[in-house]
Design goal:
There is one protein chain. This protein has 145 residues and is an alpha+beta fold. The chain has a single domain, classed as Sufe protein. Chain: A (Alpha-Beta Complex), CATH 3.90.1010.10. The protein is 46% helix and 17% strand. Strand 2 and strand 3 form a beta hairpin.
Length: 145
Amino acid sequence: MNDLMQDPMILRQIIMDHYEYPRNHELTHDEAYMSRHMASDSCIDDIYVEAKIIDHVIEDIRFDGVACTIATASTSIMSELLKGKTIDEANKIIENYHAMIDGKEYDEDLLEEAVCMHTVGKQANRIKCATIGWKAIEEMIKESE
C-alpha cells in the first residue's frame, strides 16, 4: 500500500471532506435515471441513489438522504469514482471495493480515494455503512443489463 494511504490523518481527511462536502449530493428525479432506496436497520442510513446508465456507461450517479459519516463519504466517493465508467469497469471497481472491505486482496489503484475505507472491515458494524451506496449501484447495474 502506498505511503499516503498508510497515514491515518490523510485517510480521515478524505472521509471528512466527502462527508462535509459530499459530491453528487442532489437527486434529479429525472425519469432517465434508475433509483434505489437503501436503509439500514442498525444505523441512521436512509438514502436514495440515482444512476443514469446508457449504452453500458454510467453517465451519472447522485444520492441524497440521511446517513452517517462513513455511508455519506463512501457513497460520495463511489459516485465520483464510477461516473463515466463502462459497466465492466464499474463492476471491476465494485468487486475490488468489496474485496478490500472483506480484508481480501484488491487493486488499490482502481479504488483511488475509496482506499480510505480499507480499515472499515475491522468494525463489523460499519461494513453496512461503507457498502450501502455501493449495493444500490450494483442493483441498478444488474437491472440495466
